[in-house]
Amino acid sequence: MESLISLLPSLSRMGSLGYFLAFAIALAESLPFVGLMFPGTFIIILFGFFASQGYLHFRILVWFVTIGAILGDAIGYRFGVKGKDLFREGNRFLRPTYLEKGKKFFQAHGEKSVFLGRFIGPLRPIIPFVAGLSHMSWRRFLLWDVAVAILWSWSHIALGYFFGGAAAVIETWFTRASVFLILLVILLVLLWQLAKWLRPFFRISKSVIRSVWSGFMDTPEIRGFLKRHPALTAFMKRRFDRTNFSGLPLTVSLLAATYLISLLSGVIEGVVTAEPIVTVDVRVANLMYAFRDTGFIRAFLWITLLGRRDMVIIVMAVFSVLLVLWNRKSYILPFLVTVGGSQLFASLGKNLVHRPRPSIAYYIESSFSFPSGHAALATALYGFIAYFLLRTAKRRWRYRTLVLFLALATISAVGLSRLYLGVHFLSDVWGGHLLGALWLVIGISMAESTNRRPKTETRDLFSSPGIRQVSIIAIVAVPVLWYVYQGRTYYPQRATVDRTVQTEITDDVVGAFGRLGLPRYSETFSGTNQEPLSFIVVATDDDAFIAAMDRAGWEFSDPVTIENMTRLAGAAIMKQSYPTAPMTPSFWNTHVHDFGFQKQTAVGSVRSRHHARFWKAPIMTVDGESVYVGTASLDIGIKWLVTHRIAPDIDTERDVLLGDLSAAGEIVVSDKVRFVDPVLGKNFSGDPFFTDGLADVLWLKAD
Question: Into which CATH architecture does domain 240-489 fall?
Answer without folding.
Answer: Up-down Bundle (1.20)
